[in-house]
Amino acid sequence: MITKYKRFFLTFSVALSSFLYYQNISLGSENTSKVQIPPAAPQADIEMDSNLKFISLSLQDSIIYALRNNFDIELSKLNSKLSDQDITIEKARFDPTLKLEGNIENDELPINSRLVGGLETTTISPFVDQGKTADAVIQSLIPTGATVSVEYNIFREFVDPNPFRLLNPSYTNYIEAKITQPLLKGGGWFYNRSPIYIARNNKKISLSQFKSKALEVSDSVQEAYWNYVRAMENLKVAKKSLERAEDLLRKNKIQVEVGTLAPVEIIDAESGVASRVETVISAENAIKDREDDLKRIMNLADNEIISDATIIPTDKPFFEPIKVEVKDTIKVAMERRPELTGLQLETENAGMQTKRRKNELYPGLDFTGGVRYTGLGDEVSGANDSTFSEAFQGEFFTLTLEIPLGNRSARSAYNKSKLNERQARINVRKKELDIVVEVREFVRQVMTNIERVNATRKARELAEKRLENEEKKFNVGRTTSLEVLRAQENLALAEFEASRAIIDYEISLGNLEKAKGTILDVYDIKLEEESET
């Protein structure tokens, strides 16, 4: 019965070690996340032609180019790849190792004896002892914390003189299977696999940081895009105002020539034209500034050809009032915000670290057990046959207890991990509060901008009616050019404000989607995660 047990133990150990050596031990499936940014829309395809003067871009295309080219995004992707390597490093703790060792010893010692080799002698004779050793060990750590090893050793010895040895030279070998299992400190499935769990969570944290950066970049792009559109709309309004002033100047010149208007009216009209020319110049400069802001976020300025080309935004501001429920919006944000997900994972990691540190408070209690088969022969084959014949065998069992006195280092590490876990939980609660405040703020902005759009539209309509009335009064001589110019200026200001309100509404919608964590969904941009086992 004992022989069967030994045979099973040895066979199992050899099989396990061989498996560990020739294959990577499977430690569970791993989610390897690959972040992919879809190609830009076909209409935004850019041919690198030195004659390129214009680039037509939608807001979606602009966001995609920014996600592709932004340096912060690139750094976040590299951090995610670094986390993949950390997972591999932690899993490598369970990789088996093969150790090979060879040793040769040749000793010749003087014999201080009258009896050498069974014969009497009066001279100092040498005693020759030659030994050659070869040793191979396969060893691996397994997820329970145990160290499993299989060792094969063969020793060749030649002795001269040798009157009493049965074999000379002789080959002695043994094969030994051994396992050392920690029972308290350092033992258990969780303790030994938790570094892998933590590394995988760190990978997810890196991915959440990547998503968070993608949301920030997307929000910055939509703000820069709409500010660029706003600058172009402001230029249109300024040019319209200039056209009205030039039309008034033309009419005044005609009336002065026919004698129905005083020459001073021409001066007022020319002053109005000059003022509006200055506004147009400022608006044109603002367009270039806002265009550079957009190019900088998209990192297009890095390319000399593209940076010289003019961006033509294809999306126009569109006002469609929406109804936003604060509670539902907050709920979505709590589920979708990657920063909150990252903090929750950090809290989970802190909890696992606390559990690991608690394990390290225990004393060390290790159990070691094994079986050894020994053989002897005048050749290697004979020694091996003797070893596997099970004629010479033994087993050993050891129980080792190690009690740290004081254990201050482990206790301090445990207390520190508990504080870190508490800190992580507070960070989660703080972020939740920040998200609630942020969402409520952007919901108010959206609602306010809806009211602003309606109010500025009404103000523009009234300014148009006032200008129309002033022009009618001017035509019949009941008012002056100065009043008409003032009415034109008021209309231009009302048009500026109306355009500004709509653009602010578009920006606030983007800000709200960013606060919800859904801005990429709105623009149909996906960060794909392909899970591989």
Automatic annotation (TrEMBL):
UniProt keywords, alphabetically: Cell outer membrane, Coiled coil, Membrane, Transmembrane, Transmembrane beta strand, Transport
Lineage of the organism: Bacteria, Pseudomonadati, Planctomycetota, Candidatus Brocadiia, Candidatus Brocadiales
Coiled coil region boundaries: 228-255
Family affiliation: Belongs to the outer membrane factor (OMF) (TC 1.B.17) family.
Protein's name in the database: Outer membrane efflux protein
Source organism of this protein record: Candidatus Brocadia sinica JPN1
Membrane-spanning residues: none
InterPro entries (UniProt xref): OMP_efflux, TolC-like
Record bears the keyword rRNA processing: no
Compartments where located: Cell outer membrane
